[in-house]
Structure formats: C-alpha cells, structure tokens
Amino acid sequence: MSVETITSVKNPLVASLRALKTAKARRETGSFLVEGETMLNEALSSGLVPRALLTEAETPLAARFPEARLVPRGVLEAVCDTKTPQGMCAAFELPPPRALSDAPQTLVALDGVQDPGNVGTIWRTADAAGFGGLLLGANCADPYSPKVQRAAMGSGFRLPAIPADPLCEALAALRGRGWTVLASALDGADFYQRPEVGERFILVIGSEAHGISENVRAQADALVKLPMRGRAESLNAAVAAGIMMYEMMRER
C-alpha cells in the first residue's frame, strides 16, 4: 500500500490532528489523539474506530486507517503532546458514552480530580484491580486528553468512563439501585475497619487539594481514610485509590 507523504504542519489533516490536543476540538470532532505504536495497537484491539494515521515510517498499521500519511519528525513533534514522539500518532473516534443505567457493579468515582496523571493512573489501576469503570464528576481532567491517556496506558480504551454531572445525583441514583458508596476523606474512619459493601459498590476519590465536595459527601454510606502509620500526613490520590481498590476487590 502506497502512503502519501506530508511535509507541512499547515496541511489540513496535520492541522486537524494537531488540534486534538484541545478539549474543544475533541468535542467538536468526536475524535481523540493516540500516540505511539503500542497505544495504537491497544486502541485497535479494543475496538476503537480508527480515523487517520501519521507515521514516520512505513507500517502495516496504515492499512487499518481510512487516511494514513508519512510525515517527517518535525511534523510529528508538532502534532504530538509528548516532546519525543514514538514514531506515529493517530485519531480515533471517541468511545460512545456509557449510560448510568448501564453502570457496572464496581466503580471508582472521581470528584474534582484535576491532575491528568492521577486520573490516568487511577483508571489504569481500576482496570488492573478488576473494577468495572469510572464515574467522572465535573471538574475532573478530560479523560481523553493525551496526558490522561498516556497515564492510563490503554486502560482508557477498555474501561468505560461514565460522565456524572452532577456526581452527587449519579451517586444518589445508584445508591437507590443498591450500590454502596464509600468515600475517601481525611476525617473518615479507618479504611480497614470499613463496613461490608456487598457486590455493588463505589469508591469515591476527591481532589488532593479539596477532598470530596459536600454534596458528594452527603451521598456516602461511609467515609474512610487510610491510616498514616508513619510520619507522612497523606498519600497521593492515585496511590491511596490503588491501595483501597485492591483491598476492596480482594475482599469481594
């Protein structure tokens, strides 16, 4: 398969992929950017719909895309979010949104978690621990930003992220259908003395700066925190979430 070469960053296809670094363009086009061969293969194997590929070298992956172009290093660097791109990037269709009525039995809910690295790491850890998906409240980092997807390392393609705005109403609806809600809070009880949660539960993680909001707090069946047995005052949100997720799934 012969692939056309593009050398200008002003080319319309290049410009359209470059724009996907912004949330506005992702919303308007229904696409997001995936970087690097490993992540592209993850996206394709997860069933995401491919749209366009830019690559430094000929690749068999080009046959999987409606549009594929060869580009020099400088063009790839202009399009990608990383400083040292891994040879290729591509646009994929955003996954169709999952309805709250179709929520999986085990969820991690994020309340105002704005750091992309934390959102992606929690997503990846939820996938590894066996959780069914994420509930994303308002003011969280955009789940399909390049930084979030890099931190998620492919888990963002497999595990659904369900928008929940406002999060308190989504939690109330799920509680009404039998989910138990545990929320992480600095004034919570010892996590290891937590109540039983049954088969359907939600772990809520708030921002490191502000914790969970009052409206979300009101929907919690229990507030919990990890005990600090050393001299550290707290843990990074993603680290704390990971410990709690694995422990909750082990118990389940």
Give a summary of the structure in a few sentences:
With 252 residues, this protein is α/β, with parallel strands linked by helices. The protein has helices spanning 12-19, 23-29, 37-45, 73-79, 116-129, 146-152, 155-158, 167-176, 214-217, 237-251; strands spanning 4-5, 31-35, 50-55, 67-70, 88-93, 106-111, 133-136, 161-163, 180-190, 201-206, 222-225. The chain contains 10 helices and 11 strands.
Keywords, separated by commas or semicolons:
10 helices, 6-stranded parallel sheet, alpha/beta, 34% helix, 11 strands, 5-stranded mixed sheet, 252 residues
- Give the fraction of residues assigned to helices: 25-40%
Gross geometry: elongated
Instruction: Tell how many strands the DSSP assignment holds.
Output: 11
Q: Enumerate the strands of the largest sheet in spatial order, edge to edge or round the barrel.
A: 8-7-6-10-9-11
Oligomer: single chain
Rg is: 20 Å
**Which secondary-structure class do the elements indicate?**
alpha/beta
Mean pLDDT: 95
- Order of secondary-structure elements: EHHEHEEHEEHEHHEHEEHEH
* Major β-sheet annotation: 6 strands, parallel
The low-pLDDT segments are none
Please tell me about this protein's structure:
The protein has 252 residues and is an alpha/beta fold. It has ten helices and eleven strands. It has a six-stranded parallel sheet with strand order 8-7-6-10-9-11. A five-stranded mixed sheet has the order 1-4-3-5-2, sandwiched between helices. The longest helix has 15 residues. The model has no long low-confidence stretch (mean pLDDT 95).
